[in-house]
Each structure stands twice: as C-alpha cells, then as structure tokens.
Amino acid sequence: RLAKLLVDKVEGYMGELAGQSARALSAAAGQLGNFFIAPVIAFYLTRDVDCLRESFASWLPPGSREAVMRTVTEIDSALAGWVRGIVIVTAFVGVLAGAALALLGVEYALPLAFIAAMMEVIPYFGPILGMLPAVVMAFRRSAMTALLTVVAFTAIQQVESVALSPRIMGDRVGLHPLAVISSIIIGGRLFGVVGMLIAVPATAVLSIVMKSLFSPAE
Predict the structure, then answer these.
(1) Structure pTM?
(2) Chain centre to alpha carbon of residue 155
(3) Cα–Cα distance between 153 and 158 in angstroms, integer?
(4) Which tens digit of pLDDT belongs to each residue from 27-69?
C-alpha cells in the first residue's frame, strides 16, 4: 500500500509538472510569435497608413466625414505626442541617473541608469523599482554611497514628477499640467497601476472627442 501510494504521488507530481511545462511552453511560443508578428504589422501599418485612412473615411457619411477625420487626426497627434513625452522623460531620468551613479563611483552605472529610465513608465512604483538595484550596487561600495544614491534619485524623481513630467506631457498631448496630475490620480484610484498608465492618453482622447462633439460647427 505504501509503494502504491508513493507511485500515485509521483505520478501526480509528474502530471502536474508536465501540465505546467506545457502551459509555460505554450505561453513562450505565443510571446515569441508576437515578437515576430508585431514588427510585420507595424511595417504594413506604416506603409499603408494613407490607404487605411482613406478607406476608413470612405465608410463615413459624407456630411460628417470631414469632422470625424479631423478628430481622428487630432487624436493621432495627441497619442504620438504622449509617446514622445514618455521618451523625453525617460531619457532625462536615464541621463541624470547615469551621471549621478558615475560620479558616486557605482559599478554598472549605465545598465542601472537604463533600468531606472525604463521603470519611469510605471507611475508611483516605477521610480522605487528603478532605484532599488542602484542602491543595492551602491551599498556594495559603502553605506554612505548608498545613502547618497538614495538622495540623488529622490532629487531626480522630484524634479521629474513635479516639474518636468506634467509640463512635457501636458504640452505634448494638449492638456494642462493640473489635468495631467489629476488624471493620473483618478486613474490610479479607479483602475490601479493600469489606470495610471493609460490615464493621460485616455484623458487626451476624451478631451478631443468632447471638444469635437460640443464645439460649434464651422
């Protein structure tokens, strides 16, 4: 009975392991497929964007075609500006973080700065996650270096979050800095981290649509 019980347990573990392995391989294959498909889709969208725009416009009623296409163009411009704003903010944080780490003599300053810049995409939690690897590496040098790293990153984040990010994002998407900050807070309260990520572009799109709907016809 003990031998049978042991065999049953081993078979159960092996079956569970096989199932988990199959799911992991399936997920990896799906991600790999997306990795190869995404550039192809982006290439065709970039190449045929004018044709797609004209095709979409042909489906609209003639009376509202011009207004709808003008709204779509404004939304496209706002979203493109939002992406450019993210690039500018992450570059700002990456350059300053890299310079601070290099001056403090922390090893692997460039990769750590790159991680800090990429984490800026995640509101609130991103700066902390980006700072932790740098603090750990700085602590290997000395406790004082780790403390100075925390001070440097905190100063960079304050400048970025209070002055730079609202101003740049607002200018790029056509929103007031106060509207940018408010949208991030509301998005975080309603939908968590995902809400904070999409708050600014969603607010920009909503603002453009509302202006289009309620502005007097030309």
Answers:
(1) 0.62
(2) 22
(3) 9
(4) 666 666 666 776 777 666 666 667 767 777 777 777 777 777 8
